[in-house]
Amino acid sequence: MNILGISCYYHDSAACLLKDGEIVAAVQEERFNRIKNSSVFPINAINYCIQAGNISFDEIDYVAFYEKPYLKFSRVIFDHIKSFPFSYRNFLRSIPLWLQDRLILPLTLKKEIGFEGKTVFIKHHLAHASSSFLVSPFNEAAIIIADGVGEYATTSYGYGNGNDITILKEIHYPDSLGLLYSAITSYLGFNANSEEGTTMALASFGKPEYIKEFYKIIDVKDDGSFHINSKYFGYTKGKTMYSKSFIKLFGPPRKKGTEYEERHKNIAASLQLFVEETLIKIANHLYSETKMSNLCLAGGIFLNCVANQKILEKTPFEKVYIQPGAGDAGGSIGAAINLYNCILGNPRSYIMEHAYLGPEFSDEVIKRIALTQNLKFTEYNEDELLQKAAQFIHNNKTVGWFQGRLEFGPRALGNRSILANATNPEMVNILNDRIKHRECFRPFAPIVPEDRANDFFEMNGMSPFMLLAPKVREHARTILPAITHIDGTARVQTVSKKYNSRLYQLLIEIEKLCGVPVAINTSFNLHGEPIVCTPDEAINDFLKSQMDYLCIGNILIQK
User: Fold this and answer.
1) What is the pLDDT of residues 460-483, one digit of tens each?
2) Cβ atoms of 551 and 402 closer than 8 Å
3) Does 2-135+324-343 match 172-320 in CATH topology?
């Protein structure tokens, strides 16, 4: 049975192919059209999935979509009416989009891929819940979903057992932790729906001196349910997500490109603490209701690795699972697998233990592309390549690392990465000055073999998808200054020998030279771009930046 899962029209459009309950391909549209966080119908992602599954469009049995468009449209219309006349400008902007594509998915499928079969629409938060629980290793688990907004729900919780998912409670729009985080992200001069991670990073440099103000405008109950005073926000009323009342309480917003005041850092810190405390209350209450030891998390809020770590540390849950595309991209997986396991009743058989589900390229293709660009390169066997790359990293060179299948989700997990020396305190500045050109306060993530992670980090389980931020052990902070954030944490990725043996072995080679099997792993892209997908894109970024070496397949390219 072939099920095509789709998420699109808001941000992070993606597609996945489920064959007999197994994910054989999953990828975001942005990796093909090169528009970061692209929201369009994911035709390129769909084409890739069909090719990777070695099937034709005629062999698709079902299409599963990650929300119910008419239910969401009813909420949008009601919200515009409720906010009229202040919503008039937003009404004129958004309604044509609904009529153009969001309400006519079956017609779009027929036009774009010739599909006239059954299309199944899954509620947004149910798709999120399914994307985590149904691909987790747990037969039963509590589930929390938190994002901007689905149809109506913004935060949900419940539990899963076998093939069944039960939602116990929903909090509805406009009460939304995701929209709150996006609003403050915008207020701080960053882009909503794409730079919330920058707000999270900035928070570590501030103090939560505005926490009382957050609790003043948001009423939080003991069980974590909350109500946001709409006086301070206007999601459909104007040009900004925050109102004049918000500015009066917190001061003028930061303009993009200006210096960061202590006030900005403190507001970010207060927001982060508020969200953490609210999520912990929800998790503790859910544990008291379910008494389950496992927890699955889904929705864009749970790309916040700092909050995820606090939930793991400060609640009774023993194990937490978050799949790599926790945001809307993962909805494509959730919709497909919900249809297969819950609606059609097929037994669960798939566990998402790795994210390597995108395109890959042979050495022959890579060499042909390098030759067409008149590049000199050297081909090595694997052992030679690993030794060379380890030596470069040890010598404080930056190495583009392009291997195997592209990762699913927003994080580079060692197949489309830039690697560097984690023991050099200057490496953060080197990477930012020469390649990334991003905010100086944003931390770089470490990669470490999963069986060695606890030697350097206070692990509460593995972190294969870079979605936890444990403390760096005291003795390791001086050894690994380039990946230790100002708050003493690190956004760790644990590397499995089973699923990425080449990267695992590279870390062992690095240990032979510097004494620790740890390296910096940052995404292979230049500022403002999506992560590279093809060899052409990797070579172009390599040539445009001051990256020192490029290891692409078994080929080494240097300048």
Assistant:
1) 999 999 999 999 999 999 999 999
2) yes
3) yes
